User: Fold this.
Amino acid sequence: MTRGLLFVSLWLALVGTGPAQNGEEILKKVDRNLMPESYETYRKLINIEPDGAQREFVLFTVKKGNDKVVSLFVSPASEEGRATLRLGDNMWLYIPNVGKPIRITSLQSVVGGVFNNADVMRIDYHLEYDVEALEDLGENYLLTLRAKSKTVAYDSLKMTVDKEALVPTEIECYASSGLLIKTLRFKEIKSFEGNIRRPSVIETDSPLQKGYKSVMIFAEMKSRDVPDEAFTLNFLPRVESLR
Assistant:
C-alpha cells in the first residue's frame, strides 16, 4: 500500500464515513429522546379552523419496539372505542359495529386537520429516513433526511435539532417535487415519568391548508412493555383493556 493510500485508510478509520454517519447517530438519539422504545401516552389533538372553531380528540397510545403502535380514541363520545393499529408501513382503523378493520394510508387522517396518520402513529424517524446531510448551526443541527421508500409519508425532511436536548425544534416536510407540505414545531420541553424529557407540544400548519392549524399535547408518557398480542387486528376491539 502506498503512503497516500495508507494515510487515507487511517483517516477514514478515525472519522468514519463523515457527516452522514454522525447524522445517523444524532437521529437515533433524537428518536430515543422523543419516544422510549416501548411506552404508553395520553395525548390531546386539537384541530383549529380559520374561523377559530376547534375540535378536540383524546388518544391513549401504546408503542412497542420499532414498528408497532396502537391507539384508542378516549373522547369525544362520537369517536369513543375507535382504534388504530400500525405495523411497519401498514395501518388500520377499527370502528365499533362496522366489522373488519379498514386499511388506511399514512397520508390520510383519522382525526382530520393538518396531522396525517403518519404524524399521529409516528414510529422512529431513523427507520423511515436516511440522513443525507448534516449542518452545524451553532446551537442547533440541521439534518436533511430522505425517505428510504415510497411508502413513507414525506419524501424528505429538514429537521432542526436542539444540540443540548437532542430533540427537534422544527421539521419541514416535503413532497418529491420539493413542495413544502407542512411544518411541525416542537415546543415546551417537559419531564415525564422514567427520565423522559421531551417537547410536550407539537404544532403544525401547512401552506396547502391556509388558516388551519393542529396541535398535539402530551399529557402523560411512560415506559411500558406490552404483549405482542396487543398489536394485532383481533385485539383492536379490546384496546380499552390496556388502560
About this structure: The chain is about 15% helix and 45% strand. The domain at 18-242 is CATH 2.50.20.10 (outer membrane lipoprotein receptor (LolB), chain A). The helical segments are 3-15, 19-34, 117-120, 125-128.
